[in-house]
Write a structure and sequence with these properties.
The structure holds 2 protein chains of 2 kinds. By secondary structure, chain A is an alpha/beta fold. Chain A is 32% helix and 24% strand. Chain A contains 17 helices and 21 strands. The longest helix of chain A has 16 residues. Chain A is globular. By secondary structure, chain B is mainly alpha-helical. Chain B is built from 13 helices and 2 strands. The chains are: A alpha/beta, B mainly alpha. At the A-B interface, α10 of A face α9 of B.
Chain lengths: 513, 324
């Protein structure tokens, strides 16, 4: 069903909405969404964007305030309730089922059925129509979802929301995992929906998207609305300023690092097919960037150095020392090598456990009293010091880490390694999916570490980030380190060309998804 | 970072209050229903029945916390008891040596469980299911499928001490509970257990090898099952190769009543002990009010499920989130 607002009224009106868990998450939020607009909601991690979208889509009940939809009181008690009222949500984390087919995922809530049996033909027909809507024409709806890459899954999630009629569509970071052309497809659909009068609430961390797709921008900070502005005529700098408040926005200027001896030397490292004969070295005080397409072997290279996966061949040394025997991460950490992994949720954070425990995990042994006992006082003091140094925003050190925003979780993981004081640190996409303020905190730490003489390898898919921070950038393509640029020698075009070079000779032109 | 709210992975005293309240309620209920229940005899009887289940529940708590499970404990207990009895009676070993033999067999079974689990990354459910069969077979083998009678030789452990009326086995079991709780909440090993049960890959990628920790946990579970075997022999003055059938399920029930998560990462040894006591009081009380065996089982089963519902409800309070 579709709701129509009285003329001149916004379609959805949120008034004075409060929500608190252990601390206030939203305080007195007023927000309006008009029919036929794309309204971007921006804010740092933990500013309350996701909570607001959860409240509007019926997943979370507000503690105070009211909402109206098309002039009538609107208080959904469940997601189903909201969907019946015409409000659809595409979630940040994909709630799709990998073992089911694309078609089944699209219509999970209302599979066409007769006598309790799914009507396959009808389902396929509807699925094809829904998929055309997001440009997924070359995909068989009978493909199990688990076989698709992240980008395609995200498109399926969008298609699933669009497959049902709605007057309000909420998208929580729909493009986080998408490539440029896939983002284009999604935007095309959003524009078409806007034409038909759908009201779209759009949450994203990609600032530049606001000006491509947004009509208005609302900025949240610490659970309050700071400003609502037309997107045209509001500069990105202004938005960043509104998001982070008084805290100075450090420009991403390159700091000159003082380089020392070689701290890490990698020779002929191989784990086919993703890591082939990779050699490089990193000096003390240096940040070496690793650029490349997704699947080019950057993550795998870090994992093999760190012992998370075994190397088939190759040698890793600390400086000019003897070859290290690294059979598992424990060996790497003993050799003074740390790694901030790619997927912090699955590979780094202990969700249900206190922030304090998360920070101290790698140093518990070193802090032991009489070898076996936890030194509670020292643990608390050190965790508190590191938490403050990285500006971890939590109610207390005892709060479960899983309750923190993504950016703050990342700070906790970095704090864990700072406490361990490794000489070599491997960072895998440390700023993925975190907000501007948290990114700035990460950049600051990287520069501080380099200044303190640590050797850093930084994998990132954001070239501007690499070009600002790194002293050198190595480019990986199809498992090989194809070239390394020194600062000043690189350009975006040259890096991109190098990233594709390894695939050029392939007959099928196959690229990693 | 203002006003630290309570949010801990290990429970505080307040966490035990709920279970203690249930216990007091049960005692009050049975005291009202039966004239004989509220007596010293009842309490010492209960206390002297539970040492075996108590120490097994301590091991099971640790296993569940690392997100494993140990189905072999009942059989390993029988095997430990059998080895003890045979070593004493047939091989004429001195009692302390026979006891050590029983404990060693339990430890060996536990180490085997742990090593196979981590070496081939097989679910511990399967590994310990295999051990359940093997240990039971071993118990039949060493006893020739007959009960082995020891007589008074081992009474010193199982019989109540004069004056206090409690057996050394009970006192020892309480000491094991205390040691288990201290291990869990004060030592690095305990912290690693909780962390591994929460996210083993994150632990591994923090430079800590989870495998020795997991092997240690299964070894402890096996050792405690062996100790339960000693208690069992002391209590009955004989070793029955059929002993402890289904005991793994009683232990899991007690541990779950105590709020330990089957998904790993959360649990308390003291709560598990309270779970054991609740089950024992329930069964003794039901027997005293004249409930039949079938009724006892139905009521006990219902209480287990109710306890878990209560626990789930308590954990959802305070951070109420709508699930999708």
């Amino acid at each position: 069903m579709t709701a129509h607002a009285p003329a001149g009224e916004p379609l959805l009106r949120v008034r004075g909405v409060d929500k608190r868990y252990a601390a206030p998450v939203l305080s007195g939020v007023d927000f309006e969404l008009r029919a036929g607009e794309v309204h971007a909601v921006m804010g740092a991690n933990g500013a309350g964007k996701s909570t607001l979208s959860r409240i509007i889509s019926g997943l979370t009940a507000p503690d105070g305030g009211s909402m109206t939809l098309a002039g009538a009181a609107y208080a959904p008690r469940s997601r189903r309730d909201a969907q019946r009222a015409g409000v659809q949500l595409v979630m940040q984390e994909l709630n799709l089922i990998p073992t089911l087919t694309v078609a089944e995922n699209l219509f999970l809530a209302d599979l066409p059925a007769r006598f309790g049996f799914v009507v396959g033909a009808t389902l396929l027909e509807r699925a094809r129509r829904a998929m055309e809507g997001v440009g997924l024409t070359d995909l068989d709806p009978r493909t199990p979802l688990g076989q698709l890459g992240v980008g395609h899954r995200q498109l399926v999630a969008v298609a699933a929301a669009l497959a049902h009629p709605c007057s309000v569509l909420i998208l929580d970071e729909p493009t986080a995992a998408l490539t440029g052309s896939e983002v284009g497809l999604v935007f095309e659909q959003l524009r078409r929906l806007r034409e038909t009068g759908t009201a779209i609430l759009y949450i994203s961390h990609r600032l530049e998207e606001i000006q491509r797709i947004g009509d208005r921008v609302t900025v949240l900070r610490d659970g309050r609305v700071v400003a609502t502005r037309p997107a045209a005529g509001t500069s990105l700098d202004e938005i960043v300023q509104l998001m982070v408040g008084d805290r100075a926005v450090e420009a991403l200027d390159h700091r000159t690092h003082r380089l020392g001896d070689v701290a890490l030397r990698v020779e002929g490292l191989t784990r086919a097919p993703r890591v082939r004969d990779v050699s490089f070295d990193v000096k003390r005080g240096e940040i070496l960037g690793l650029a490349g397409l997704v699947g080019s072997g950057r993550t795998e290279t870090l994992r093999v150095i760190f012992g998370a996966d075994r190397a088939e061949r190759g040698v890793v040394r600390r400086g000019s020392g003897p070859p290290l025997t690294i059979r598992d991460p424990r060996d790497a950490v003993c050799a003074g090598i740390g790694m901030v992994p790619e997927d912090r949720g699955a590979q780094a954070i202990l969700h249900a456990l206190p922030v304090r425990w998360n920070i101290s995990l790698a140093v518990l042994r070193a802090f032991a009293k009489a070898r076996w006992w936890i030194d509670d006082a020292r643990e608390a003091a050190e965790a508190s010091r590191l938490g403050a140094r990285l500006d971890v925003r939590s109610h207390s050190l005892e709060q479960p880490a899983g309750e923190l925003s993504g950016g703050n979780q990342q700070k906790v993981v970095i704090a864990r390694w700072l406490l361990r004081d490794c000489e070599v640190l491997l960072f895998d996409e440390p700023t993925r999916g975190i907000d501007v303020a948290a990114k700035i905190a990460v950049y600051r730490v990287l520069n501080e570490l380099a200044a303190a003489g640590k050797a850093i390898v930084l994998v990132s898919s954001e070239l501007p980030e690499l070009m600002a921070l790194c002293d050198r950038i190595g480019v990986m393509s199809d498992g090989r380190l194809v070239t390394t640029f020194a600062r000043g020698d690189w350009s975006e075009d040259a890096i991109v060309a190098a990233a594709f070079s390894g695939y050029a000779g392939r007959r099928d032109g196959a690229r990693p998804h | 970072m203002p006003n630290p709210p309570p949010a801990r992975a290990t429970p505080r005293i307040a966490e035990y209050l709920g279970m203690l309240a249930v216990l007091v309620l049960l005692v009050a209920l049975f005291s009202a229903l039966s004239d004989h229940f509220f007596s010293r005899i009842t309490f010492t009887t209960v206390a002297n029945q539970i040492p075996a289940l108590t120490v097994i529940a301590v091991g099971m708590t640790l296993v569940l916390i690392v997100a494993g499970i140990d189905l072999s404990v009942g059989s390993v207990m029988a095997l430990g008891a059998a080895v003890l009895a045979v070593a004493r009676v047939e091989w004429q070993m001195p009692l302390p040596a026979a006891i050590l033999a029983g404990l060693a067999v339990g430890l060996a079974a536990g180490v085997a469980n742990g090593l196979v689990t981590v070496r081939w990354t097989i679910p511990s459910f399967i590994v310990t299911l295999g051990m359940l069969e093997m240990a039971r077979g071993g118990a039949y083998m060493v006893t020739d499928s007959r009960s082995v009678f020891l007589g008074a030789a081992i009474d010193v452990i199982g019989l109540p001490l004069p004056v206090i009326g409690l057996s050394p086995a009970f006192v020892l079991a309480i000491a094991v509970v205390a040691a288990g709780q201290i291990l869990l909440s004060k030592t690095i090993l305990g912290r690693y257990m909780i962390a591994i049960g929460t996210n083993a890959e994150a632990v591994r990628l923090s430079g800590i090898d989870p495998r020795p920790v997991i092997v240690t946990v299964f070894a402890l579970s096996g050792l405690l099952a062996g100790l339960a075997g000693v208690f069992h022999v002391a209590y009955l003055e004989s070793a029955d190769p059929n002993a402890g059938t289904g005991l793994e399920l009683s232990a899991i029930a007690a541990v779950v009543i105590g709020g330990t998560s089957l998904m790993g990462g959360r649990g308390s040894v003291i709560s598990s002990f309270l779970g054991v006591v609740i089950i024992a009081v329930l069964q003794t009380g039901l027997a005293q009010v004249g409930a039949t065996e079938p009724t006892k089982r139905i009521v006990t089963g219902a209480v287990i499920v109710a306890a878990v519902i209560l626990d789930a409800y308590r954990h959802s309070l305070g951070r109420r989130q709508v699930e999708i």
